[in-house]
Amino acid sequence: MSVEDKQKPQRNDRVTIRTVATHAGVSVAAVSKVMRNAYGVSEALRAKVTDAIEALGYRPSRAARGLRGRSFTIGVLLIDIRNPFLPDVIAGVNGVLAPSHYQAMIGVSNARVQLETSLIESMIDYKMDGLVLVAPRLPSEILAKFAVQIPIVAVGYHDASATAFDTVNADDQRGAEIAVEALLACGYRGIEMLSLGEREGHAVSVVRQREIGYRRAMQRCGFGASAPIGKIPMASPKREETMRKFLSRQDRPRAVFCWSDLDAITLLSLAMEMGVRVPDDLAVIGYDNSSTAALGLVNLASIDQSGRELGQVATRALISRIEGRTASEHILQIPSLVSRGSLIGSDTK
Amino acid sequence: MSVEDKQKPQRNDRVTIRTVATHAGVSVAAVSKVMRNAYGVSEALRAKVTDAIEALGYRPSRAARGLRGRSFTIGVLLIDIRNPFLPDVIAGVNGVLAPSHYQAMIGVSNARVQLETSLIESMIDYKMDGLVLVAPRLPSEILAKFAVQIPIVAVGYHDASATAFDTVNADDQRGAEIAVEALLACGYRGIEMLSLGEREGHAVSVVRQREIGYRRAMQRCGFGASAPIGKIPMASPKREETMRKFLSRQDRPRAVFCWSDLDAITLLSLAMEMGVRVPDDLAVIGYDNSSTAALGLVNLASIDQSGRELGQVATRALISRIEGRTASEHILQIPSLVSRGSLIGSDTK
DNA sequence: CGTTATATGGAGAACGTTCTACATTTCATC
DNA sequence: GATGAAATGTAGAACGTTCTCCATATAACG
């Protein structure tokens, strides 16, 4: 509007720590001290500086911060964004972070080890302050190597012997036991587990843990150590085909424990389509108690491991590690059963 | 192991551009040039440098890069991580980014304007190269202000008059028309829309656009301009209560068009629970064609706007803008109907 | 009043890149 | 050979912070 409109400051208008210092009539170092509320700042100085910050709308550059010190960002790595269990974890992370000055940035690896690695490296290169890895695929040694460079908490990754990083898990073995016990308590006898058919069978993975729990519960109840475990491939076309085959088997079990709601729900859908009645012909119990399982239409009994809580606990652990803790922590939550129609018919029809 | 174990380089072992330069026997600037494959690099030089990079396992620091030039990161802002439509968008973004040297970092705003603002600011402060905002809540003027500082593409945000940023949308008005037309074609006459009950009624929001399309289609078919639109609150307790009330109305319409699968699916669940048969008593059509809608158990007819494609198109637009385009683009995709059991019974029972 | 502690503020060197200028070499072309 | 033009490589100044020393001012104490 004014005649004095300048051309120059069009892009060069970034308010830096220097602008603030000049405006407040103090040194750059002083402003920095106030920002980090470091030692050696008088009330008068603080007031001057905060006023200037307010007046100019100053925001420190995260990039520059990261170059020298902390970036106040924590990275979250998700294996997969479609699994409805993961948003719960994110919600937990964000809940804990919200009141703090930390912020979360999320990366999605799509279960690709390659991408997972490069994402972790990127987060390190951004000088993020810490990482929450949700169900990472990388082997423990590699994670340990990364953990030297940045504080790490792994969620959904069983390695209680790791010393370089922390782990936060629901007790997946126990969860599987609870599932089996629930099926037995309902009187079902022929019980099978449907697990994930993956080449990698790390004991670190939650899937493997659930298999162990399933086997143990079956054995304890006298059904032999080699209780049957079916493998469902991950990729979509094969996946449904395998399930259909399972459903049409003539020696189909009376009840099935699925390693994840994701599979359980698809199974339920196919069962309906193929005329297999649930739970009359086949009882189903899933894992994660995802929001979809809770839908009236789906009505899937499931093991609840409170993703939200896992996210919260993991974040708190990470922050304590960022703030200096060095001894590793391995936290185990107890999962619980949420009974629904797929386990035992609600109506006495 | 060796006796010469040094204490010093324990943390100081970062391989920087300087390490590479020394190792290759060239200048720092030369290495930088190779990295950015800038003009003025001979084959011999390039070979020396890439060898050194390989040998040392050098990765440029994103933090330092961001401070001076590009960071090769694009920020994605999600309004909500629970809506199963959004993972599709992410998949599209990642698909386009994967072969490039760009990487995506995701922030989740949980529909909070405050958080959305601070996340955008953070991404700017990280010197990210561009932003994909998915269904942002901020008004257009504010977005325009941000767009001066960083290239922005908004997805699910209708503002074809914006000059500072691009928009990528499915044609939500058309989508709603298609839905209404489909219901009419099935012979249903009493049709209502269930929309989102929010204070904010920006025309930019997809919800409002769908309402407009619904009204227009109804009017065109002779059902008056004031076709009824019910409002469903977002928060969970009130939400279901409102739906129950709707379902038990004695003047309940014959068919309903829901603004989102999210609501449609809950409605389907409640309908089953309350004994309202779908589609015999009530036909339902949703929006988004989310993965949940496709489940056999749910079997919800829905308007497909291919989130994946939106993500791809948006990312390509963003990259072209990063690379210099200044004129704004406003892209509109045509949605399509996916007919399923909630629209017309598949079996002739 | 000296002398010593303590509290307060500032100078300036990192941090690891990018990128503008410039210096040098190589190559045509006359 | 001389003369530009083009190609190739380098020095070094940013970028916006943090943080270690230092310098000074003030308080405490005998």
Tag the structure with descriptive keywords.
alpha/beta; 434 Repressor (Amino-terminal Domain); Rossmann fold; 13 helices; disordered N terminus; DNA-binding; transcription cis-regulatory region binding (chains A, B); LacI/GalR-like_sensor (chains A, B)
Q: Helix and strand string of chain A, N-terminal first?
A: HHHHEHEHEHEEHEHEHEHEHEHEE
Please give the count of helices of chain A.
13
What Rg of chain A is obtained from the alpha carbons, in whole angstroms?
26 Å
What is the count of structural domains of chain A? 3
Give the overall shape of chain A: elongated
The percent range for helix content of chain A is 40-55%
How far the N terminus sits from the C terminus of chain A, by CA atoms, comes to 78 Å
The CATH topology name of the largest domain in chain A reads: Rossmann fold
GO molecular function (chains A, B): DNA-binding transcription factor activity; transcription cis-regulatory region binding
Domain HTH lacI-type (chains A, B): 15-69
Protein name (chains A, B): LacI family DNA-binding transcriptional regulator
Keywords (chains A, B): DNA-binding, Transcription, Transcription regulation
